[in-house]
C-alpha cells in the first residue's frame, strides 16, 4: 500500500513573486512556506516600465492556480507598498504604488518588500545578527537582528573602494568587465568590509551570480539557492 500524501497545513496560500533585473519568477507557497506549484520565470521586459512589469506578473499569476494573497520581492527601496528606488528597472518606478496596483489587478491583498529581505527570510536562522547580500544585475542587501528585518537598508550605492560603490564593483556589468577572477577579488574585499562594519554572526550570499563565486568562504558565510527569493514570501506577512 502506498503512503498517503499529507495535506498541507491550514492557512492562506501565498503567490510569491521575485522581480529581478533580468527575470521575474513566481510560485505558490503553502502556509509553511513549502512550494505547491512549479517555479515559473519570464524575462523582465525592456524597458522595465511599471505597466510592462505588472503585465508579466499578471501572466505568471494566471498560470499558478489558486492563491489567497501575494508577496513581492522588489529590487529597490519599498516603503508601505510604494517604490522609492528601482535603479535596475526604470526611473518611472519612483513613487509608484506597487502594492495597491497589484491588488487592483489580482484582486488579492499584496505585500511588497526589498528582494534581498524576502530572500533573507527564506534562509536565516532567526538568531543573532544575520546579513544577506544578493549578486545579480545589481547588488542587494538586507540585515536581520534575531529574525527581524532592519527596514530600508540599501548598501548598493554606498562606496566600497576608490570612490566606486558596491553595485559598481559587484553588479553584472562589473562581472562582465573585470572577469570572474578580479570580480571575486572585489567580492573578497566587500566581505571584509561588511564583516568589520556589521559584525554579523552569519552572512548569506544569493542572487543569480552567486554561482560565479569561487572564493574560499569563512565558516560563517555561505551561498544560498536563488529560490530563497521566493520562499521568504510567507514571512513578510508576519512583519
- Rough outline: globular
What is the average of the pLDDT values? 93
- Taken as a percent bin, the fraction of beta residues is 25-35%
Q: Largest beta sheet: what is the strand line-up?
A: 3-2-1-4-7
Low-confidence stretches: 1-5
Distance between the termini: 43 Å
What structural category characterises the helix and strand content?
A: alpha/beta
CA-atom Rg in angstroms: 18 Å
Helix percent band: 25-40%
The total count of helices amounts to 7
H/E topology pattern: EEEHEEEHEHEEEEEHHHEEH
Q: Main beta sheet, described?
A: 5 strands, mixed
Which descriptors apply to this entry?
7 helices, five-stranded mixed beta sheet, disordered N terminus, alpha/beta, 239 residues
Describe the structure.
Helix content is 27%, strand content 26%. A 5-stranded mixed β-sheet has the order 3-2-1-4-7. A 5-stranded mixed β-sheet has the order 10-9-8-13-14. Strands 5-6 form a two-stranded antiparallel ribbon. Helix 1 runs parallel beside helix 2 and helix 5 crosses helix 6 (180-198). It is α/β, with parallel strands linked by helices and 239 residues long. The longest helix is centred in the last third of the chain and has 19 residues, at 180-198. A hairpin with a 2-residue loop joins strand 9 and strand 10. The model is unreliable at 1-5 (pLDDT under 50). It has 7 helices and 14 strands.
Draw up the topology in text.
Layout (H helix, E strand, L loop, with lengths): L13 E6 L3 E7 L10 E4 L6 H13 L6 E6 L3 E2 L2 E2 L14 H9 L3 E5 H7 L7 E7 L3 E7 L2 E2 L9 E3 L2 E2 H5 L1 H7 L1 H19 L3 E5 L14 E3 L4 H4 L8
Parallel strand pairs: 1-4, 4-7, 8-13, 13-14
Antiparallel strand pairs: 1-2, 2-3, 5-6, 8-9, 9-10, 11-12
Helix pairs in contact: 1-2, 5-6
Amino acid at each position: 500500500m502506498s503512503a498517503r500524501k499529507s495535506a498541507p497545513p491550514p492557512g492562506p496560500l501565498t503567490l510569491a513573486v521575485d522581480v529581478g533585473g533580468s527575470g521575474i519568477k513566481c510560485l505558490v507557497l503553502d502556509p509553511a512556506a513549502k512550494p505547491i506549484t512549479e517555479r515559473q520565470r519570464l524575462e523582465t521586459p525592456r524597458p522595465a516600465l511599471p505597466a510592462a512589469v505588472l503585465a508579466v506578473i499578471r501572466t505568471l499569476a494566471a498560470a499558478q492556480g489558486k492563491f489567497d494573497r501575494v508577496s513581492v520581492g522588489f529590487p529597490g527601496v519599498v516603503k508601505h507598498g510604494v517604490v522609492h528606488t528601482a535603479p535596475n528597472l526604470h526611473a518611472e518606478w519612483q513613487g509608484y504604488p506597487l502594492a495597491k496596483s497589484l491588488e487592483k489587478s489580482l484582486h488579492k491583498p499584496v505585500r511588497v518588500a526589498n528582494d534581498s529581505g524576502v530572500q533573507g527570510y527564506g534562509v536565516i536562522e532567526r538568531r543573532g545578527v544575520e546579513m544577506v547580500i544578493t549578486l545579480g544585475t545589481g547588488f542587494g542587501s538586507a540585515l536581520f537582528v534575531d529574525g527581524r528585518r532592519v527596514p530600508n537598508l540599501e548598501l548598493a550605492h554606498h562606496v566600497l573602494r576608490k570612490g566606486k560603490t558596491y553595485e559598481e564593483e559587484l553588479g553584472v556589468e562589473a562581472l562582465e568587465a573585470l572577469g570572474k577572477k578580479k570580480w571575486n577579488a572585489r567580492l573578497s574585499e566587500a566581505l571584509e568590509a561588511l564583516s568589520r562594519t556589521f559584525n554579523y554572526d552569519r552572512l548569506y550570499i544569493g542572487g543569480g551570480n552567486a554561482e560565479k563565486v569561487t572564493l574560499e568562504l569563512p565558516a560563517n558565510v555561505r551561498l544560498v539557492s536563488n529560490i530563497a527569493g521566493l520562499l521568504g514570501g510567507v514571512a513578510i506577512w508576519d512583519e
